[in-house]
Amino acid sequence: MDWFCPRCHTDQISHNMTRTRLLVIFWTLILTMMLYPMMSMLAIQLYTALSGSYVAGHHSLLLINCPTEQTAKDIGRNIMEKRMAACVNILPRTSTMFYWKGEIQDASEILLLVRTRTSMIQRLIDFVKAIHPYQTPEILSFPIQDGSQSYLKWIDDAVPDV
Question: For the chain, what percent of residues have pLDDT higher than 70?
Answer without folding.
Answer: 85
